[in-house]
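Researcher: We're teaching a course module on how sequence relates to structure. For the next exercise, students receive a sequence and then see the predicted structure as tokens, so they can try to spot secondary structure elements on their own. Here is the exercise chain.
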Amino acid sequence: MARRIRCAIYTRKSSEEGLDQDFNSLDAQAEACAAYVTSQKAEGWVVVPTRYDDGGLSGGTLERPALQRLLADIEAGLVDQIVVYKIDRLTRSLSDFAKIVDRLDAAGASFVSVTQSFNTATSMGRLTLNMLLSFAQFEREVTAERIRDKIAASKKKGLWMGGTVPFGYQPDGRSLKIDEAEAPIIRHIHDLYHQVGSVRAVAEEAEELGYRTRARPSASGILTGGTPFSRGHVYQILTNPLYAGRIRHRDKVYPGQHPAIIDPAIWDALQERLSAEAARSRGRSNAVETSPLVGKLFDETGDRLTPSHSQKNGKRLRYYISRRLVTDRRQKHPDAWRLPARDLETGIARILRDHLTKPTVPAELVSDLSAAELPGLQEKFRQLANDCDPYGGADLWAPLLRRADLQQGSILLRLDRQVLAERLGIRPDRIDSAARRISASFQMQRRGVEARIILGAAVPQVDPVLAKNIQWAQRWYDAIKAGATFGELSAREKTTTSRIQQMIGLAFLAPDILDQVAAGRQPVAFTSEWVKRRQLPTDWDQQRQIVGGL
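Model: And here is the predicted structure for the students to work with:
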């Protein structure tokens, strides 16, 4: 009697086009594969009931939900053989194919291509397979080159090649037309920069005027945008040659076929001004790029933190490190700290500013405070808070700090009595010693001795997108258990099959991870986008290890 061989059918389609049809490309592939398995019934071949469909996903990567589930089932001993319509449905990359073959060999499994007959058990069969994969990969790379060349040639002719439609324009075939409602905002933003000469000031003025970015519906129907213009957005508007009637491609700019919102000569003059201002800012930055907290930072062992720096891509990166990393290099010191200087400095400035703006602080900090002097003192406290601008000059706020003690979970700041008294115009002995202490949350995400820091009150914040996707995933899983297919679900939910496949793993999250998400205490990096690009294991312990390490 022939050995029973459990065959799993794997199907894939690169685009989502046509997947909403009752009988689509994935169904056609599955039907052909099922017929082939049936023809081998005498050899003991049987089809496993589970479908492994990756709709709308490229074969150039192994990060496909259905493929990862299939490989996991093979390693778990649930599948003996993969059946595909063509080998390029499984992968188009030789290196990825080698990885798959290694995993199949380790599990004692194999695969079959319905339309390409070869036996991978022989050397000639493997050579044939490698040749087919080489041509598949070659075809993919040539296609990509043709697309890149076409885009470059089209942009050289001044054509707009699609993508996110820039604010101020609307699509007009292979070109753009001016959006008469948004174009005045673009012109006013340029005028504001000519007046104030600061991107940050322009962003603040734009927010005061109520300017908002364009609201855009996503594929899932969720609206994004409609928010105030950030400094980055303002800078992009000021430097985008599109608004001068030009098209940029990589490092080259060509005359465009669309109308300009900003006169090209005015735009060119503005670029020179921006470059000159950037050069002055770099000069100022290099001149004052000191470490304002030197001598004031101490870790939980009492060791002083000392300034250090490194170079990356020609950029100087500053740190505060435990002194023992410098004085005793013979040991590794796993408990020593290496903190990004800029993050630490802006975080401490923010803590000082938030503390000094509290209405109760003047009465707590200054003893024998009379009602007559309170209004004048409150104004001085407001000025002190303004001096603690996280993105302003550290020479204004750093002298206020006498010492900062860091430990796991908290930071203790001590204000300098003498400096505080001078700024407030009062005697030093009127400053309450206990009130000079400011305690705040200090969280670290370690990577070796280096750490990412989060300073200030740790306020839980629920990720509404992640929470909603978990609810959807649980509902989708219930529907699948009830007999619905991915195609039926996507039609019913008005979404794509690939999105359901990407998010369905959220239905199997460990209970404690679900509790973290509900309370807003999950790791910052654990988002829907993170889940979309990875396949979480179903094992809860493995989930906790992965999520906890983010």
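Model: If you want an answer key for the exercise: The longest helix spans residues 123-156. The longest strand covers residues 437-447.
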